[in-house]
Amino acid sequence: MRAISVRNGKGDADALFVDSNVPDPILGPRKILVKIHSFGLNRMDIMQREDRYPYPLLPESGNIIGVEFSGIVEGKGDDCSDGFSLGDQVFGLAYGGAYAERIVVSEKMLMHLPSNLSFLEAAGAPETFFTAIQAIFLVGDLQPGQTVLIHAGASGVGQSAIQLAKVGGASKIFTTAGSQEKCDLCKSLGADTAVNYRTREDFAEVIERETNGRGVDLIVDLVGRNYFHQNMRSAAMDSRMVIVAAMSGSKVDDFDIRSLINKRIWLMATTLRTRDAEYQGRVRDTFLEKVMPHLVSGEIRVTVDKVYSWNEVSEAHKRLESNVNAGKIICRVD
Ligand SMILES: NC(=O)c1ccc[n+]([C@@H]2O[C@H](COP(=O)([O-])OP(=O)(O)OC[C@H]3O[C@@H](n4cnc5c(N)ncnc54)[C@H](OP(=O)(O)O)[C@@H]3O)[C@@H](O)[C@H]2O)c1
């Protein structure tokens, strides 16, 4: 089959190319073969392309990049349930292999495409919504009426988290983003206050002012080092902070654990790709229960930033690396 490969095994965006000589994936028990329509881009794809992905890749993911896709069921392995039939339109999460014409995945990681979602939108939904489900509900344990701060609000994960916090009953949603346009987008998704971090405004001061000094109950952080001290200032007593990424760096200077102790802050971190199939299946089921009805009703949406043909995958990666995207970058398998 054809798939995207990296010339010489690692390199910059220009090293990506459509390789027409890649072995077909092999169908096994309780696995489904999907002919891929589109795949979503994620930042871990850049690390994998550069051969600096920080965790060992699982054997089933192989070398092909890509963890989310949409497409059509083309084959079923032995012992599959009746959940999916040949010809079904589906989307799903994978450990790897989505930058390709075909993929084989566990049936636990697939979902039926609702009629109001296009293949392009669906290809960009699993990774960010599954991650946000962990951050907001499974790990973050947001309760109705609580306040939440979500960093990088216009990122894929940030947009999903804002919308989940809204349907989860958050009483006030604070967010940060890097332009007025991105702040406006966050507000259109449900954020009450969006702080443009490129202005002089300090999000910790805004939160102190707007919560009368109380702080927020839950922080979802994707930024790491640059925000750590302000996050400690913004956390309420008995609050929780879930670290999902450290886009500004992971080493924090002058961190005094007394700041955690004084406010009894629960500091947690989570990842999705390193979770086993059982856990990811549970996240899929939570998605079907808590997110899918809102996607069908239109209350929750997937923002597609830009669609490329997979022949332009290098350009798509360059856009992701430039940080200008607000939402998902999608490649269509042509
Ligand atoms: N733990 C997990 O399981 C998991 C799962 C999925 C993703 N992630 C990670 O989560 C992060 C976000 O992923 P995504 O797909 O949502 O990203 P995305 O849609 O590509 O958006 C990333 C945005 O983050 C902002 N940003 C980048 N560097 C920043 C910095 N130093 N300080 C503040 N903001 C910064 C930029 O927007 P502005 O213009 O607003 O700055 C950028 O557009 C990535 O690091 C990704 O690897 C982790």
From TrEMBL:
Keywords: NADP, Oxidoreductase. Residues 11-331 form the Enoyl reductase (ER) domain. One of its GO terms (molecular function) is oxidoreductase activity, acting on NAD(P)H. InterPro entries: ADH-like_C, ADH-like_N, ER, GroES-like_sf, NAD(P)-bd_dom_sf, Quinone_OxRdtase_PIG3. It comes from the Eukaryota. It holds the Pfam family ADH_zinc_N. SMART domains: PKS_ER. PANTHER family: QUINONE OXIDOREDUCTASE PIG3, QUINONE OXIDOREDUCTASE PIG3-RELATED. NCBIfam families: quinone_pig3. This is Quinone oxidoreductase. It comes from Penicillium malachiteum. The lineage of its organism: Eukaryota, Fungi, Dikarya, Ascomycota, Pezizomycotina.
